[in-house]
Amino acid sequence: MNREYTAVIKRENGWWIGWIEEVPGVNCQERTREELLETLRATLREALELNRQEALSAAGSDFQEEKIAV
Hints:
The chain has one domain (7-56). Helices cover 39% and strands 23% of the residues. It has one helix at residues 33-59, and strands at residues 7-12, 15-20, 27-30. A 3-stranded antiparallel beta sheet has the order 1-2-3, covered by helices on one side. The longest helix has 27 residues, at 33-59. It starts with 6 loop residues before the first strand and ends in an 11-residue tail after the last helix. The model has no long low-confidence stretch (mean pLDDT 95).
């Protein structure tokens, strides 16, 4: 599944800082814009996988998965 997210980025005090708008807790800082975007991508992937694993664990054994488009 190829989904797009929005990175909100800015330069502040010599650092690039950024957040993923749609996913709370995904934020990073790096020295360059390119490094920031790379780190945000990696952190977003990790956060989505962690959220997925937590949801599956909370569901237990008898559940169904359903795709939902917004």
